[in-house]
Every structure is written in C-alpha cells, then in structure tokens.
C-alpha cells in the first residue's frame, strides 16, 4: 500500500493564491500550514490520504520530477527552466501571472537595438531558459547565475542585462531598468509526476479534476 499522496506547494507568493484553489478541490491543510512562524515543512490535511509539503519554488519541480512528491504547484517559469520530461502539467491555474523578460539600463536601451545583438552577458536565475532563448535567436549568451536581486547586477557592472520576472514593472523602474524583450508569459501550473499519474491514477485523477473545476468556477465568477 502506497503512503499518502504528497502535494508540494511553493513558499512565497503563489502559496496564498493556491490555497483557495486546493480548498475548493476539497484539500485543506492543518492550521500550522498558513503560520509563517511554523518551522514544520510537512503538514497533514483534512484528507488522511493527502499531505502537503512547503518548499522553495524551484524545488517543487525537483520533488515532483523525482517522485518524492506526486503533485505540485509551480510557475511555468520554473518548468521552462528545468524542462523535466517526468512532469505532466495538466492544469493552468490562472494565478501567479507575470512574464519572463530581458531588461537593461534605461541609458543603454536609448541607443540599443536587440536585433543587432550577437553576444550578451546576462545576470539571471534562469540560465537554461535564457541560453535557449538567445540560442534560438542566434545570439551567444553568457549567463551569470544569481538567486535573487538580479536588478542590481547592471549598475554594479556584473552584467549589462538581466532576465527576470516582471509583473507591474515596479522593480525594474525603481532600479533604473527597462524591459526590452518578453521571453514568455508565466502562470502557475498544477504538475504531476508522470509515473505516479499512471500507477496512482485512481487517487490523482480526482484531484486533478477537482482543481481544474475549481479554476473554471473561479474564472467564471471573475
Ligand atoms: N512579481 C510576480 N508576479 C506574479 N508572479 C510572480 C512574481 N514573481 C514571481 N512570481 C511567480 O511566483 C513564483 C515564486 O516566486 P517567489 O518570488 O515567491 O519565489 P522566490 O522568491 O523566487 O523563491 P525562493 O525564495 O524560494 O527562491 C515564481 O516562480 C513565479 O512563477
Ligand atoms: O514587476 P514587479 O511587480 O515589480 O515584480 C517583479 C519582481 O517580483 C519578483 O520578485 P519577488 O518580489 O518575488 O522577490 P524575490 O527577489 O525574492 O524573488 C521578481 O523576481 C521581480 O524582482
């Protein structure tokens, strides 16, 4: 008998939007899950057959790809970066909307034409996605991997350009940067480990269907 199904949820901004969706799909975590002071990483739910883990956004994809969790919620930015063949992403959750873009200092952009680039040095949390994007355009990209605060890299001379998430554009603006190219639109997805989807379909299928129905109901109500 397999143990409980494990659903991996990212800490941070997607968490708040994801919980109402899960609740509408009939999965509600114990109170400690929403307590930011709690140091626990693994939580029971109202369903004895389902537990939740709270991990970093990038690690959600890794846990699910390796089958340590069977289901997860993750931004499509993370899926594009890892490109794991073990992951199936059956539901666009219509939350966590933003875009992954190339940005550069306002002064550089004034006289720059992205179509003329042959080589770029880019600070990013997404080196794989960035290299693929530029390779497809015939541009050689040298990536400097950072884990956050990419926006300060250009002014400090670490890289001329950045590839990062943009939503309102406020972070770019406050750091003297401007968006020059959109690489992809981003939203959060429900992901499932492909092998588990086959071997535990009786348990996973209804959860996927429940989340899909919750997204559709919320979309109609909006
Ligand atoms: N400004 C934004 N607007 C909307 N969605 C966003 C925004 N920034 C990030 N996201 C989405 O939320 C996900 C998690 O981002 P968040 O900033 O909460 O985590 P993080 O700080 O990158 O994670 P960690 O601290 O684990 O490295 C991203 O992968 C993306 O899909
Ligand atoms: O266009 P905006 O609305 O300003 O949003 C963009 C910012 O949001 C994300 O960072 P977040 O706030 O999640 O902080 P982080 O650096 O910890 O990822 C992203 O990395 C940008 O820095």
From TrEMBL:
One of its GO terms (cellular component) is cytoplasm. Residues 56-209 form the ATP phosphoribosyltransferase catalytic domain. Pathway: Amino-acid biosynthesis; L-histidine biosynthesis; L-histidine from 5-phospho-alpha-D-ribose 1-diphosphate: step 1/9. It is found in: Cytoplasm. Its main location: cytoplasm. Keywords: Amino-acid biosynthesis, ATP-binding, Cytoplasm, Glycosyltransferase, Histidine biosynthesis, Nucleotide-binding, Transferase. It is an enzyme of class 2 (transferase). It comes from the Bacteria. One of its GO terms (molecular function) is ATP binding. Its EC number is 2.4.2.17. It catalyses: 1-(5-phospho-beta-D-ribosyl)-ATP + diphosphate = 5-phospho-alpha-D-ribose 1-diphosphate + ATP. GO terms for biological process: L-histidine biosynthetic process. Belongs to the ATP phosphoribosyltransferase family. Short subfamily. Heteromultimer composed of HisG and HisZ subunits. Catalyzes the condensation of ATP and 5-phosphoribose 1-diphosphate to form N'-(5'-phosphoribosyl)-ATP (PR-ATP). Has a crucial role in the pathway because the rate of histidine biosynthesis seems to be controlled primarily by regulation of HisG enzymatic activity. Lacks the C-terminal regulatory region which is replaced by HisZ. This is ATP phosphoribosyltransferase. It comes from Sphingomonas sanxanigenens DSM 19645 = NX02. The lineage of its organism: Bacteria, Pseudomonadati, Pseudomonadota, Alphaproteobacteria, Sphingomonadales.
């Amino acid at each position: 008998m397999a143990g409980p199904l494990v659903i991996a949820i990212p800490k941070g901004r997607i968490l708040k939007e994801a919980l109402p969706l899960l609740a509408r799909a009939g999965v509600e975590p114990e109170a400690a899950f929403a307590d930011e002071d709690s140091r626990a990483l693994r939580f029971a739910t109202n369903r004895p057959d389902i537990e939740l883990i709270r991990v970093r956004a990038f690690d959600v994809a890794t846990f699910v790809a390796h089958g340590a969790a069977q289901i997860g919620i993750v931004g499509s930015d993370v899926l594009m970066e890892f490109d794991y063949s073990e992951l199936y992403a059956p539901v666009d959750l219509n939350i966590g909307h933003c875009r992954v873009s190339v940005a550069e200092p306002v002064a550089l952009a004034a006289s720059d034409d992205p179509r003329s680039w042959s080589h770029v040095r880019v600070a990013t949390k997404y080196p794989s996605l960035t290299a693929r994007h530029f390779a497809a355009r015939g541009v050689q990209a040298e990536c400097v991997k950072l884990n956050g605060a990419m926006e300060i890299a250009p002014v400090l001379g670490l890289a001329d350009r950045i590839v990062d998430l943009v939503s309102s554009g406020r972070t770019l603006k406050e750091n003297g940067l401007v968006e020059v190219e959109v690489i992809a639109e981003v939203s959060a997805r429900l992901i499932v480990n492909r092998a588990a989807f086959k071997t535990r379909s009786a348990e996973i299928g209804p959860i996927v269907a429940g989340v899909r129905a919750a997204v559709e109901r919320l979309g109609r109500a909006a």
